[in-house]
Amino acid sequence: MAVTLPQGVEILAPLTPAFEEILTTEALAFVAKLHRQFEGRRRELIAARVVRQAELDAGKLPDFLPETAAIRAGDWKIAPLPQDLLDRRVEITGPVDRKMMINALNSGAKSFMADFEDSNCPSWENQISGQINVRDAYRKTISFANPDGKQYKLNDTIATLILRPRGWHLMEKHVTVDGEIVSGALFDFALSFFHNIAYLQTVGSATYYYLPKMEGHLEARLWNDVFVFAQKELGIPQGTIKATVLIETILAAFEMDEILYELREHSSGLNAGRWDYIFSCIKKFKQNRDFCLANRAQITMTVPFMRAYALLLLKTCHQRNAPAIGGMAALIPIKNDPVANEKALGGVKADKDRDATDGYDGGWVAHPGLVPIANEAFSRVLGDAPNQIAKQRPDVNVTAADLLNFQPEAPITEAGLAMNINVGIQYLGSWISGNGCVPIHNLMEDAATAEISRSQIWQWIRSPKGVLEDGRKVTVELFRELQAAEVAKLKAEYGNRWTKQYEDAASMFDHLTTSDDFVEFLTLPGYDYID
Ligand SMILES: CC(=O)SCCNC(=O)CCNC(=O)[C@H](O)C(C)(C)COP(=O)(O)OP(=O)(O)OC[C@H]1O[C@@H](n2cnc3c(N)ncnc32)[C@H](O)[C@@H]1OP(=O)(O)O
Ligand SMILES: O=CC(=O)O
Ligand SMILES: [Mg+2]
Questions:
Q1: Which candidate in 98, 135, 164, 320 is catalytic?
Q2: Beta strands 242-247 and 151-153: pairing type?
Q3: Domain 414-527 belongs to what architecture?
Q4: 39-75 confidence digits (pLDDT tens)
Q5: pTM for the structure as a whole
Q6: Which CATH superfamily is domain 1-59+94-213 in?
Q7: Which of 152, 71, 463 lies closest to 293 in space, CA to CA?
């Protein structure tokens, strides 16, 4: 190892010369500073999540917080947005794979969320290569030669890069400070900020972030304090960093104003992260005898609790001069089946049309082929205006009961159960093999969508309402019977692509589903399977 490690820092993974350009002594010293300053608070907040879950398990329902009523009633706005975040009508997302990043930046979308989270398997290789790719993308020097000879380089006009670090719950096991492994969130943030902020300032931009999976405003306060500290350390003007928070947990939905308020000097709005949101509802109410959702496919953006959440997010953002960005339809272009393809594209159009008409300022797409559809839907409403933040929604009145109106409860079917098993195992197999985003049955599947599949089965097994429409109760025995059938089908379909990773995935899926202790995130045990 050529790098001189700062005192107290260890790296428990291989370093190539290219990795050493990212893991420099100075960058690691910055990681260590953030760790020493904030790791204690991060742990307290994770511990507070456990306490909150116990309250929910005991039947307490969430509500808007009485202690922050003044913030909700107050007349404040977030700080002005930088020029390159004013127009976000189409945002493409994708993992930090070099070729895909170039494709995303060239896609015609206004912004590109470079994802170290839901769509990324956090192997050491992916994380550090991802930082190299981000560095080169910011400097517009990124290029790629595909093994088939195709060359990739950036167009003259590219999307603005927004980086999504890992959430507060994930660790970076390959780096320790004073003998403690470091937070994945702090690690991803620290490296991207340290290496790029000074350069970006010279071109009138900055590092922008998407912040995932927070459960409340105190977690947002921690991010804000990290930003303040980081900017001070590197002599960057306060308020330079901007961050969009994904509202993708049911608890955060009750604290949207407060989250914007905590980050008001650094905020670039909120995003409706629908897939983790559904997962969070299942997770938080998994012990509630009244709670039980229908087959995954039935939980669309138009069901009552999802509609309430989407409208409240929009109203809250615009009251605070903040962009409201819509989430992701999981539909993707379908090759070799024009009829199915047209249906999928129609689904994306309907999704983006609804968001644009409601008043959203932009929305996510999963694939470059969907950029024109989303662009048309938002441009139809926005015209030449960069956004519609000025559009207020006083007509929207969402109550706690609306957010908790968990319908539909039916149907739950054998096909829905089998599909959850099939998708869950395929996704986990891919994730353990190093790829965090895959097309399965013509839908985009990532960590968030797979969480819904596995948590639904856990909950159906344990809920009195977990009954198939033909009257059979969902049980461990029924799950195992269907699981055996799905594994046999997949083995036949995969042939020699059915590797040890897929065997591991099947046994991990069995554990996730049958263990009475609910596993908080599938990526936590999954992390033990990857380097
Ligand atoms: C819940 C959430 O968090 S949503 C956010 C996280 N999820 C995502 O970001 C989804 C990202 N999307 C993807 O990973 C992919 O689109 C998938 C896995 C869904 C589908 O992938 P594929 O079936 O391989 O796509 P397909 O074969 O049609 O790709 C065609 C081309 O588009 C590129 N492409 C596809 N999706 C993307 C993307 N999101 N960004 C950049 N390029 C992309 C492919 O690299 C390929 O490029 P090439 O022709 O130069 O080789
Ligand atoms: O991150 C987005 C989501 O839907 O989850
Ligand atoms: Mg998510």
A1: 164
A2: unpaired
A3: Up-down Bundle (1.20)
A4: 999 999 999 999 999 999 999 999 999 999 999 999 9
A5: 0.98
A6: Malate synthase, domain 3 (3.20.20.360)
A7: 463
